[in-house]
Specification:
14% strand; alpha/beta; globular; five-stranded mixed beta sheet; 41% helix; 472 residues
């Protein structure tokens, strides 16, 4: 008997997962299944129904499924189900055979999705609009080849977390209000604001960094296909820049810079040694006198707490309240931290508290200074100060609060939740947990309470690991 499976239009991961469970529960072969991925009615067969137990599959298979369901090919679900059927019926190593026609086709679809994700990451351009409330909002239009919109949400949230933005596409839309993501239906390009000053500035910057000596139109069209040009503001400049490239190259040759004069490495090293701080107070004077290495930074917010503290807590960077007060963790996240410390039996006065980045990185939005996440390069710039600081404090345990602190203390970008718990950090005993601001961003009270209790449990484990007793 033929079985019909109707899924919603787009990338219906959950619907496909449920359908696979039901079909495998009654051993329905691929040839007996009709997949309807348009969301409409199918006139043939009986609709698959009922609950079914989960299906255990290799991680590589679930990853492939999660990607290929985003493809526009109407046969994608049938192909994926055939792959799962074969793996479940004696071909456990099927994915390791690239010569298999089914594997080859699915791998080509996976690569197509990867290219489409890369293009959306690279070619989304926001335009600014200011509402009557005076708050800036940013809107972008993009035309993906496949159903990848929801899959890109994490990328854009990470990079534009402090902005209110919308990305509209013909197959779905994303809306972010700095705290909550909403996935919507197809957008309308007519909603895109007119050209703005931000876009004009971007075009000016693009023209200034265009290197005519490295011009390769064929490679340019390969990386930035013509189909994307109509939605890229800088694309209008490209014909002019290509036409003027020979003259700009001649100008560059005529104004070749002088070769740099080499510094004496012995003298340079000796100068650095003379500047090395002798203690924490000297280090703090250097930090306080230095120019900010992030945009928007005003004054340095130094760490506080006793030298020799058993525990050093390292956060990301100062926020607006910390920048104004000149002290770490005094804003909403600091109040959350104080509450959790008290509940875990830790006295903040006996801890050392600091940040990986010493200045507040922000973007001005009207009267508000909106937090901006430090880049990997900025974290690297500040790392020498942080490691010197930790060396002077010399705690028994250093705690990374959040991904930025983990990056700074370990020297490399690592997934936070996968490394949560005890971990050696640059040769020191360490512990990785979430930043208290993470708790403030959770969308509902139940999630916040669960995450808060897990955070307090981490702090209790931290307390016990250094042998501190809770206050009576």
């Amino acid at each position: 008997m033929t079985t019909r499976v109707t899924l919603t239009a787009g990338a219906d991961r959950d619907g496909f997962r449920q359908a696979v469970r039901r079909l495998l529960a009654v051993e329905t072969p691929p040839d007996d299944v009709i997949w309807n991925a348009s969301g409409g009615l199918d006139l043939f067969g009986t609709e698959a129904a009922g609950d079914a137990p989960p299906v255990m599959l290799p991680r590589a298979v679930t990853d492939l499924v999660g990607t290929v369901v985003c493809h526009r090919d109407p046969e994608r679900y049938a192909l994926l189900y055939r792959l799962i059927w074969r793996i479940r019926h004696g071909e456990a190593g099927l994915l390791a055979n690239p010569a298999d026609r089914l594997v080859h086709r699915l791998e080509a679809m996976r690569k197509a999705i990867g290219r489409d994700l890369h293009k959306m990451h690279a070619f989304v351009r926001f335009r600014e609009t200011v509402a009557p409330d005076g708050i800036a909002r940013y809107i972008a239009w993009f035309e993906p080849d496949h159903y990848i919109v929801e899959a890109t949400a994490g990328f854009f949230i990470e990079r534009f977390r402090s902005m209110i933005w919308a990305i509209l596409t013909p197959v779905g839309s994303l809306f972010w209000d700095t705290e909550r993501l909403v996935v919507g239906g197809p957008g309308d390009k007519a909603q895109l604001p007119a050209d703005d000053e931000f876009e004009a500035g971007w075009c000016s910057y693009y023209a200034s960094i265009f290197n005519p000596a490295r011009l390769n139109p064929t490679m340019m069209r390969s990386e930035m296909a013509m189909k994307y040009w109509r939605n890229l503001p800088e694309a209008a400049l490209i014909p002019h820049l290509i036409r003027d490239a020979p003259e700009r190259v001649r100008t560059m040759v005529d104004h070749t810079a002088e070769a740099p004069r080499h510094r004496d490495p012995t003298r340079a090293v000796a100068a650095m040694e003379r500047q090395n701080p002798a203690d924490l107070a000297a280090l703090n004077r250097i930090i306080a006198d230095a120019q900010p290495m992030v945009t928007g930074g005003t004054r340095a917010v130094l760490g506080e707490g006793p030298t020799g503290a058993a525990i050093a807590l390292v956060g990301e960077q100062p926020g607006d309240a910390e920048d104004l007060a000149g002290r770490p963790f005094v804003g909403p996240a600091g109040q959350m931290l104080d509450r959790a410390l008290a509940e875990a039996g830790l006295d903040r006065a006996h801890l050392y508290v600091t940040n990986a980045v010493k200045h507040f990185k922000y973007e001005q939005r009207g009267k508000r200074r909106m937090h901006a996440t430090p880049s990997a390069g900025e974290v690297k710039h500040y790392r020498w100060w942080l490691m010197q600081e930790i060396g002077f404090v010399n705690p028994k345990l250093v705690v990374a609060l959040g991904a930025t602190a983990l990056h700074a203390l370990s020297g490399k970008a690592l997934p936070l939740l996968r490394n949560r718990g005890p971990m050696e950090l640059d040769g020191r005993a360490g512990f990785v947990t979430v930043h208290p601001s993470y708790l403030l961003r959770l969308p509902d009270e139940a999630s916040r309470q669960a995450a808060y209790q897990a955070f307090v449990a981490d702090l209790r484990q931290i307390r016990d690991s250094v042998g501190l007793n809770p206050p009576p």
